[in-house]
Amino acid sequence: MTSKKTAFICDESYFWHNAGGGALFEPSSKYVEEYGSIETPQSKRRVKNLLEKSGLMDSLVQIKPIPATETQLACYHTHSHIENVKRISEVGGEDCGDSAIVGKGSFEIAKLAAGGAIEAVKTVVQSDDIKTAYVLTRPPGHHAVADRGMGFCLFNNIVIAAKYAQNVLGINKILILDWDAHHGNGTEAAFYEDDRVLFISLHQDRLDPRNTGFLESVGKGKGEGYNMNIPLEAGSGDAVYEYAFEQIVVPAADKFMPELILVSAGQDGSIFDPLARLMLSAEGYRRMTRTMKNLADKYAQGRLVCLHEGGYCPVYVPFCCHAIIEELCGVTTDVADPFIYAMEGTNYKKLLPHQKAQVDGIRKFFNIGGGAL
Ligand code: ZN
To answer: Ligand 1 mean position to 184 CA, how many Å?
Structure first.
């Protein structure tokens, strides 16, 4: 299907970050028995295992990440946040903000995660034959704001990579699409007044953070019109996302004409995820990837980087991620979704009238097709 190659960026140490204890997303307490953080290495490690088992890894170009420098982190993060993560990392086990535990040695791992994102962007921009990349980053990044970590995220990998593309590689227009189930608040904050980055986040309405991700947050100053939140109701599945892509994401990208596309490709929108109430299937993730790839081919010389964010069902995430990577590299294996039958009887493939009305309302709000972006 394509002669262009896909890079895969990962490092064993990504799986060694210790996100601390607790149960689901809360610390253990009087009646909540200790279980361990829901942000474990398992879902990501099993992605890598499945890529190897299916043989898809043989079609990818594996690139080793290089740690981001403190100067590179400081393109977004404050000196005091960087120093705080570094200090906690020496002993481990403290929060560097809001539910973002730094484990022992996590500073080095987080630098390597941000560095992996930078390496991916550098590769797809500078290489003649590698135009797409998947970065299996951990810890994730999209919640981290300038001065603190949030929601399992220590440093904002995608922001650091995008700023590298702007400042070092001279890329003018970047589309960042965030389909993680949670709002990409840290990424939004980074580019809220920037008209060179179009940020589009599709997320479950008021999931986490609850006080960001609203439709009305459209950017500020020069950035007004370049921040698009698409908050979806719980229960939204493949058909809703497909419709939202067709009606909002694609027309917005057509207008913006990005030179580089980055995706915060969290997989916690899957029907089996314990942290969200969305109903995406592996096939749904495949189709969203296809759409982004078509946009990258149309406007960005094929340059498309997907970064792992959330995804908390260790069994199902590998199948979602495998489908995404198959689509990125244009290679199909014999891996089929073994769990899809369990979704029969749900509405994940149906666009229900109230869901269509919601997406139509969002499209009208953005005045896609008529208004200025
Ligand atoms: Zn998430």
So the answer is: 8
Does residue 370 surpass a pLDDT of 70?
no
Mean pLDDT to the nearest integer, 65-87: 98
Q: In the chain, what are the domains? A: 6-27+35-365 (3.40.800.20)
CA of 45 from ligand 1 middle (Å) equals 17
Q: How many CA atoms lie within 13 A of 73 on its CB side?
A: 30
The catalytic residue positions are 143
Distances in Å between the Cα of 44 and the Cα atoms of 8, 16, 195, 320, 335 are 13, 11, 33, 11, 17
What's the rounded Cα separation, in Å, for the pair 218 and 208?
18
Tens of pLDDT along 102-130? 999 999 999 999 999 999 999 999 999 99
Q: What are 291-316's pLDDT values in tens digits? A: 999 999 999 999 999 999 999 999 99
| Cα 79 from Cα 116, distance rounded (Å) | 21
Spacing, Cα 270 to ligand 1 middle (Å): 11
For residue 229, the tally of other CB atoms under 10 A from its CB is 25
Cα 296 to ligand 1 centroid, rounded to whole Å: 24
Task: Report CA dihedral (337, 135, 45, 39) to the nearest 10 degrees.
Answer: -100
At residue 28 the predicted structure's pLDDT band, cuts being 50, 70 and 90, is: very high
**Mean pLDDT for all residues in the chain:** 96
- Is residue 255 within 8 Å of residue 366, measured between CB atoms? no
Ligand 1 mean position, distance from CA 221 (Å):
28
The reported pLDDT for the residue numbered 25 is: 85
pLDDT for the residue numbered 26: 87
Instruction: Count how many residues are written for the chain.
Output: 373
Helix runs in 92-184, H state only: 106-126, 157-167
63 - beta bridge partners?
9
279: which DSSP letter? B
> What is the DSSP secondary structure assignment for residue 68, as one 8-state letter?
P
The pTM for the full model equals 0.97
Q: Decide if 224 contacts 194 (C-beta within 8 A).
A: no
Q: Are strands 149-150 and 227-232 parallel, antiparallel or unpaired?
A: unpaired
Q: How far, in Å, is the centroid of ligand 1 from the Cα of 265?
A: 9
- What is the spatial distance between Cα 32 and Cα 213, in angstroms, rounded to a whole number? 29
